Amino acid sequence: MLLLITLAVTAGFTLSNTNLKSVGNMQNRNEAVAASNRAIEEVAASLLLPGVDGSPSLAAPQATASQVDINNDGTTDYTVDIAAPTCVRATKSTDTGGGAVGPGGIGGGASTAGSGLNALPDQYNSVWDISTTVTHAASGTVTSVRQGVRALLSKAQFEALCS
Q1: Over the chain (163 residues), what is each successive 10-residue block's mean pLDDT?
Q2: Which residues contact 120 (CB under 8 A, 6 or more apart)?
Q3: How many CB atoms lie within 10 A of CB 23?
Q4: How far is CA 161 from CA 48, 120, 123, 134, 157, in A?
């Protein structure tokens, strides 16, 4: 009887230890994805910012790295390496008009319908691919995250960056 109780306790301990490791790995992965999303948001916010004189940026986005302290304890928990964003595709923006008009006069039918973009000369809807590699500082585990970001380009930006 003592042997059966010992085996049951050992099996329960092993199972709970395995579950604890699984939950810990999932938490680390979720934190890594959150760190990556934070870095991607920083890159997306700075993607193609205008120059100090207000002219559109024609400089291609560069690869960067970001140090993330996920728990705000003053030490870096994750290092996020962000590859240079690449323009995947760009299409000329047009105001197709038509379509249903919703609350507040928002038009439907196309992504730029009712937006007034036909009044802006040579604007392009672009999709950028941002890829990151997140490394956990303590364990060295690596997680990769990719995300697409849309940006409105001028004709000069389109020709310089997405042609």
Answers
A1: 91 84 87 92 83 79 91 92 93 64 44 51 87 92 92 88 83
A2: 93
A3: 10
A4: 10, 19, 13, 26, 6
Query: What's the pTM?
Result: 0.69
Distance CA 42, CA 32 (A): 15
Q: If we measure between CA atoms, which residue out of 76, 66, 68, 111 comes closest to residue 93?
A: 111
Q: Where are the beta strands (DSSP E) in the chain?
A: 64-68, 78-82, 86-92, 123-136, 142-154
Q: Give the integer Cα–Cα distance in Å for 77 and 66.
A: 11
| Closest listed residue to residue 146, CA positions, set 39, 59, 25 | 39
Tokens of 58: 């024609």
Phi, psi of 25 (to 5 degrees): -65, -40
- Which residue, chain included where needed, has tokens 């986005």? 61
Partner residues linked to 133 by β-bridges = 81, 144
> From CA 73, how far away is CA 28, in angstroms rounded?
16
